[in-house]
Write a structure and sequence with these properties.
102 residues, mainly beta, Jelly Rolls, seven-stranded mixed β-sheet, single chain, globular
C-alpha cells in the first residue's frame, strides 16, 4: 500500500487540519493494521469500497472490501481503544486528520 502525508500550507487551514493522508492499494492481498487510541477526527473518503465499521465496548474495527459505489465517506474519531483495520480489496482513500478545538 502506498501512503502519502501532506501538511497544509494555508495558515487558516493549519489551525484545523493536521495533515491529509492518501492511501492507495492496487491488489486484492489482505492488509491489516492497528492504530493507537487517539482523540483525532478523520473524515475519510473512499472510492469503490464498502466499509463495515464496528465500535462496541470491546471491539473497534473497520473492514474494507470492494464495492460499486463511486464514493463513500465516514467520520471516525475519539478512539478509546486501538482501531483495527482490515483491507480486503484495492483501496483509494483520502483522510483529513484534525483535532476538535472547543
Amino acid at each position: 500500500m502506498k501512503s502519502i502525508i501532506i501538511k497544509p500550507k494555508n495558515e487558516l487551514l493549519k489551525r484545523y487540519v493536521h495533515y491529509f493522508l492518501y492511501f492507495k492499494k492496487k491488489d486484492n492481498n489482505i492488509l491489516n493494521y492497528t492504530t493507537f487510541p487517539n482523540s483525532n477526527l478523520c473524515l475519510a473518503i473512499y472510492r469503490e469500497n464498502k466499509i463495515e465499521y464496528g465500535n462496541q465496548s470491546k471491539t473497534n474495527n473497520c473492514i474494507i472490501t470492494k464495492d460499486n459505489k463511486y464514493f463513500v465517506s465516514k467520520l471516525y474519531g475519539f478512539h478509546k481503544m486501538p482501531f483495527q483495520v482490515d483491507i480486503n480489496s484495492p483501496l483509494a482513500l483520502v483522510c483529513n486528520e484534525c483535532q476538535l478545538k472547543l
